[in-house]
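User: Hi! I have a protein structure encoded as tokens and I'd like to know what sequence might fold into it. I'm fairly new to this, so please keep things simple.
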């Protein structure tokens, strides 16, 4: 079976892998990890990708509008998921949120970070590199 015919489960609903998804990457300051993820995958032909941060000092702060836009939210650490739950309550409960368990120890476009992000992208969405 071709990958275009396969499905993933998002928010309890079966979604074809070739359907457009809005994917939001979240870290603390939107400076290194989530920004790397956005820049890495932003030109993917099947998905729109954005990034934001949870901290008051974030380059781009996560907003209600960003949460509403997203079909899938990929947070770098479990604590980011908890922060989103505290800040956005029921709105987050309606979304598929997955923690990638990527610690805050990488710089922007760090080769190891890129490798980890590409592995998660493949694991979650079933797509190869960028």
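Assistant: Happy to help. Inverse folding works backwards from shape to sequence: for each of the 130 positions I chose a residue that suits the local structure. Here it is:
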């Amino acid at each position: 079976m071709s990958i275009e015919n396969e499905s993933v489960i998002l928010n309890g609903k079966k979604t074809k892998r070739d359907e457009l998804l809005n994917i939001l990457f979240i870290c603390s300051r939107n400076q290194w990890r989530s920004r790397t993820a956005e820049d890495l995958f932003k030109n993917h032909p099947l998905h729109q990708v954005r990034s934001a941060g949870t901290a008051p000092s974030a380059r781009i702060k996560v907003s209600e509008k960003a949460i509403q836009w997203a079909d899938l939210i990929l947070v770098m650490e479990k604590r980011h998921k908890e922060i989103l739950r505290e800040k956005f309550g029921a709105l987050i409960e309606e979304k598929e949120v997955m923690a990638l368990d990527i610690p805050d120890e990488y710089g922007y476009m760090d080769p190891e970070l890129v490798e980890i992000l590409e592995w998660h992208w493949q694991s979650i969405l079933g797509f190869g590199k960028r």
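A useful reference point when you look it over: The first strand starts at residue 7 and ends at 10. Feel free to ask if any position seems puzzling.
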